[in-house]
Structures are given as C-alpha cells and as structure tokens.
Design goal:
By secondary structure, the chain is of the alpha/beta class. It is built from 16 helices and ten strands. The strands form two sheets. It has a five-stranded mixed beta sheet, sandwiched between helices. Strands 3-2-4-5-6 form a five-stranded parallel beta sheet, sandwiched between helices. Helix 1 packs across helix 10. The mean pLDDT is 96. Bound molecules: 5-phosphoarabinonic acid (PA5). The site of 5-phosphoarabinonic acid has 14 residues, from loops.
C-alpha cells in the first residue's frame, strides 16, 4: 500500500490541461529556484540530502539528553515549535503520565505564548523532576521564546549551577547570527544549525524538529524515510496525475476560484490535532498575503461534529473540507453485547470502533458534500513516523506549489511584524518611542 494517497473524493473539479501544466510549472520553480522567495528553498531536497553525520550527531545528542533528564523543556514558537509538537503529539500516548512507568523523557513545550499562568504551572510541575532544555529560535530574538528561555535558564542554573546548566541546555539556531547564538557560544551550550535557506514553517525536518523528536525517542530515520518517499513522488518531471502534491495544490486553487475561501482540515484521530495546527501555520503564513489566500481552519471529528458540524452543514457556502483519513488504528477495541440493550447499541456488537469511526467519516463526507461543502481526502495507512514524514513533505510541497499558483511568495511573512512593532512600542522598548507616541494618540 502507498504511504499516502490524495483524492478529491466529492468535489466538482475538472482539472484542465492548462491547470495541470500550471501546477507542474509551479513545482518546477521550486526545483529550479526561479520563483519568488528562492532564497528559502532548502527544504525541497532536505529529506534526501540529510547526511549520516548530521543524523548521528542529532541522535547522539538526543540520547545524551534522554539520559540526563526526565523532562525536556522544548522552547520555541511558530515554525520553531509546531512541527515538533505535531509529530510528538501524534506519536505519543496521551495518557502516558498515568502509567505506572511513564515513557521517558517527557517533552513539554514553552515559549509559544506569553501566559504567566502557563509558565508558572510548567515550572511548578517540573519542580521534582530532572530537567534539560532545547531552545529553538532561528533569529534568536523572538520575544516569546526569549522570555521563556530566560526563566527556564534561571531555573536550570539555580538548580544545577552554571557549569552543569551548559550540559543541560542545547540551542538550535542560526549558524552565526543572533542573540541566542551569542549566548550559546558564551555559555558553551551545544548548538545545532537551522540552515539559512529553510524558513521556520518548513523546518521540521531540520534539527528544529528532529532533535526534540529524537530526544523523545521518536524514530526520526523513519520520519525522514517517509519524507524521502514523498520527495521522490513529487519530484520535478513526475507527471501531474502521479504527483499528489501538485494535484492537491491544483484542486484547492480551483476551489478558491470557485469562491471556496476557507479550507477545513478534518481528522477523526485526536492525536492529529497538532498536525492541523502545524498545517494552519504552513498554509496561513505562506498564502495569506496581498489580500489573497484560502483561510486554513481545522476540526477534529467526531467531537467537532457536535459543535462546528452545524455550521459546516448549513452555514455560509464558502467552505471546503480536506479529510486526513487514517486507514488502520494501532489498537483493537470491539463493542460488546449488552443483554439489557438500554442504549440500543446491540446492532454494533462485534464491530471494531475503527469501523464505526470510518463509517462516521463516510456519512459525514456524503452529508457535507450534499450540503455544498466539497470534500477532498488524504489517506495514510496508519499514524507512525513514516506516514507522518510523508504527510509533512506532501503538505510542504503542496503549499509551495499552491502559493505560486496563487501568485504570492510562499516563503515570506511580512505581516507578522505588525503586532511585534505595536507590542514593543507599548512595552517601551528603546527605539520605538515614535511608534509609541502614535499608538498613544489612538488609545
Ligand atoms: O515560519 C516562521 O518563520 C515563523 O513562524 C517563525 O518560525 C517564528 O516566528 C519563530 O521564529 P524564530 O525561530 O526566529 O524564533
């Protein structure tokens, strides 16, 4: 069985030859570097280019951290956070902490918000656990992770002393620039490099994602093998009908032109919730610019059928749905018989829960399509490292193609600066006095 398949299962899209060649042309631009944002195409060949030496360095460091600490605090935001979290949550047991012998180490995340309560609770929760930290920031100056790191570094230094802290803190950052790099060099932290030509949201297959995932005991070689498989399946020269990323990109752009402005990524596996968060950043930051772009949203079914289901079925007809379907679960749970049958569920006796879940998926897809919500379907055989690697590269490639089809640069994010400018001005950061004065007049 293929690791991933894409099918516009219930969508009224006839792809013309012109649209097929536009998608293939966009794919070619990603390979020949002649499109917008071509300084940031390092991710295109990354899975197959990662050398044994780098992989071993990551694995060795990960093993060292695992030996040192029960809990690894992973600090980062946006592209320096969501990929690792997506894979970690997908592959971890959500009830790990309730087990008599929880799998170790546990990854906990910080630096992705400015919540005082979150950080206070995080630090309190690890009070009696041995800890280490992986701090990830390409620029090395992003406010949220920098603040979290300042607090976590204080905690580690206070507990273990500065010398031991240097063994317990690893930085993933730019090769030569930024405050984090300067600090890491001064303190003697081990460092891993985020390549210059890989932007944050395309960086999960660099040490940004690979180091924390390996530290959590995840098989990063399988993750990369899956990504390599998709790299080959979407290579320049692969015919349109055989290239799932080009097909997905073409279909979503056709739907956008038909007025479907919102794409909902749906999954029936709660473990994939953070994958959807990662996907939202990937597509939202890559495409939402110049007054254009499909708005990426997400739902987890069947839970959200009892909340967002009403809107999807009958609200504004500007939605389309992309379902990430998982063919087989890891476990087997069968419905038993009940002599009283008070809940009326005996008709399900002997069925596996996954069969019911898949039937729900089919019923929902038919109902939503009937209600005017085109349905696309991506299937993976199971939730494992290999399938996730395939899915990650599939979405990255589709996003690059889709951004070019839309006519934007999918590798910049000029819009994210606006809030930072205001926040710094309001907080009184030196150099922002004029901006602060302008804002005060508005308040
Ligand atoms: O995709 C992006 O570029 C952003 O989401 C960044 O990854 C995010 O802002 C974090 O930046 P940095 O790694 O420089 O701290």
């Amino acid at each position: 069985m293929k690791t991933l398949s894409f099918d516009p299962i219930r969508a009224d899209v006839a792809i013309t030859e012109k649209e097929k060649s536009a998608a293939l042309h966009a794919n070619a631009l990603l390979h020949n570097g002649q499109g917008a944002g071509n300084d940031f195409l390092g991710w295109v060949g990354l899975p197959s280019a990662l050398g044994e030496e780098e992989l071993q360095a990551i694995e060795t460091e990960a093993a060292r951290l695992r030996d040192l600490a029960e809990v690894i605090l992973c600090i980062g935001i946006g592209g320096s956070y969501l990929g690792a979290r997506a894979v970690y949550e997908a592959l971890s047991d959500p009830f790990n902490l309730l087990h008599e012998h929880p799998a170790k180490p546990i990854l906990l995340f910080a630096g992705q918000n400015l919540s005082e309560d979150y950080l206070a609770r995080l630090l309190a929760a690890v009070e009696n656990r041995s800890i280490a930290a992986i701090v990830i920031s390409k620029s090395g100056t992003t406010t949220e992770p920098a603040i979290a790191f300042r607090l976590i570094r204080d905690e580690i230094e206070h507990r273990y002393g500065r010398k031991e802290a240097a063994r317990r803190i690893v930085a993933v950052t730019d090769r030569s620039r930024g405050a984090l790099k300067t600090l890491a060099d001064r303190e003697g932290y081990r460092t891993f490099v985020i390549p210059d030509d890989v932007g944050g949201r395309y960086s999960v297959l660099t040490p940004v994602g690979l180091l924390p995932l390996a530290a959590a005991g995840i098989d990063i070689r399988s993750l990369l093998a899956g990504a390599c498989e998709m790299e080959r399946a979407t290579a320049d020269g692969v015919p349109f009908d055989e290239n799932p990323a080009a097909r997905y990109a073409a279909v979503r752009n056709i739907l956008y032109q038909q007025g479907f402005m919102i794409e909902i990524l749906a999954s029936y596996e709660p473990q994939l919730q953070y994958l959807a968060e990662w996907w939202k950043q990937l597509f939202g930051e890559s495409e939402g610019k110049q007054g254009r772009g499909i708005f990426p949203a997400s739902v987890t079914f069947t839970a959200d059928l009892h909340s967002m289901g009403q809107y999807i079925q009958e609200g504004e007809r500007t939605l389309f749905e992309t379902v990430v379907s998982v063919a087989a679960p890891e476990h087997r749970v069968k419905i038993g018989s009940d002599p009283d049958n008070l809940d009326g569920l005996n008709f399900l006796t002997g069925k596996r829960l996954s069969e019911i879940n898949h039937t729900a998926e089919l019923g929902v897809s038919l109902a939503h399509a009937d209600g005017g919500v085109p349905n696309l379907r991506i299937e993976i055989p199971r939730i494992d490292a290999r399938s996730l690697g395939t899915l990650i590269y599939f979405f990255e490639k589709a996003c690059g193609i889709s951004g070019y089809l839309l006519g934007v640069n999918p590798f910049d994010q000029p819009g994210v600066e606006a809030y930072k400018k205001n926040m710094f001005a309001l907080l009184g950061k030196p150099g922002y006095e004029e901006e602060a004065e302008k804002l005060r007049r508005k308040l």
